[in-house]
Amino acid sequence: MIDRFRISKQWMLRIAELGLSLELMQRKAGLPELFFQQEKIYASTAELFSLWKAIADHCGDVAFGLKLGSDVRLERNHPMAIAAVCSSCLRDALQRIARYKRVVCPEEIRVEVKGDEVIIDSHYLAASEPPPHIMTDIGFAWVTAMARHGSDGHIRPLRLELTRGPEHRALLEGHFGCPITFNAARNALVFRTSDLDFPFYTHNEELLAVIAPQLDAELQAHDQNAKVTYTVKQVLKRTLAGRRPTLQSLAKELAMSTRTLQRRLTDEGITFQQLVEETRRELARSYLQTGGIEPNETAYLLGYEDTNSFYRAFNGWEGISPGAWRDMQRKADSGMVDH
């Protein structure tokens, strides 16, 4: 699994059009300098969550995500979304979304048919926390708008389930036009099974013939890169202890040239050093959660020259010291976290 994906610049333009400063959002989210000036904008799941949290905190509008998600204009959407709108029916659209979603985000879209209900939910594969509410609003609002638009208003949600409380019940029920279960065990959007095969008036076979091959090619390239990145991480996890990894040593382990490995990582929008840091962070969290390894031992196992270097890195990742993070995890496991 690659926790690195490309963010559509269309999203950023839409956010700017609605009056938010991208530079301010970048600072508030703690993103790298010139994040939005990249020719191709790549982010991790944690960076994406931080960005949307910053947007939610500063937009001053609880309906912001609903507004963004309700825009189904083709020129404002990613080819994956265009393919969904141009599908033959809701079943076809949901299958395309589930197939192509991982090209644009490490998110698994799950569609389950249970009797008279079709239940749609999602899972962020690399997340250590639930997504911000604004991201859930955008996703469900977009699927709802796509279904309504494609069916000319005939398809509407049967029910919405949200893990949050009912503070904005009237707003959300008014937007989705259906009952909402709050404080639910999951976030889920529910349609009727009979909606699945309702023909879409927006079906466009000619446009799909152009878009689908492009998306399939992107998916194939993504999966190829995923294999290389996953393998690199596995080698790093096996060889980090007491060593400072290099691109050359990893390329040798993988039986490929340094240039080839560099190119494959560049294609995925990640540098070798970023991959090393992601691996170190994953291992650090794992070691500290087990409770049997002290921070100074963790520093050695992660290939740091001294404990101070590890402490500085961990503070940069989590905002607190390794010891404080471990104590917080222990409290969470025992149900003692303050709310």
UniProtKB/TrEMBL annotation:
<dbReference type="InterPro" id="IPR018060">
    <property type="entry name" value="HTH_AraC"/>
</dbReference>
<feature type="domain" description="HTH araC/xylS-type">
    <location>
        <begin position="230"/>
        <end position="328"/>
    </location>
</feature>
<dbReference type="Pfam" id="PF12833">
    <property type="entry name" value="HTH_18"/>
</dbReference>
<dbReference type="Pfam" id="PF12625">
    <property type="entry name" value="Arabinose_bd"/>
</dbReference>
<dbReference type="InterPro" id="IPR009057">
    <property type="entry name" value="Homeodomain-like_sf"/>
</dbReference>
<protein>
    <submittedName>
        <fullName>AraC family transcriptional regulator ligand-binding domain-containing protein</fullName>
    </submittedName>
</protein>
<keyword id="KW-0804">Transcription</keyword>
<keyword id="KW-0238">DNA-binding</keyword>
<keyword id="KW-0805">Transcription regulation</keyword>
<dbReference type="InterPro" id="IPR032687">
    <property type="entry name" value="AraC-type_N"/>
</dbReference>
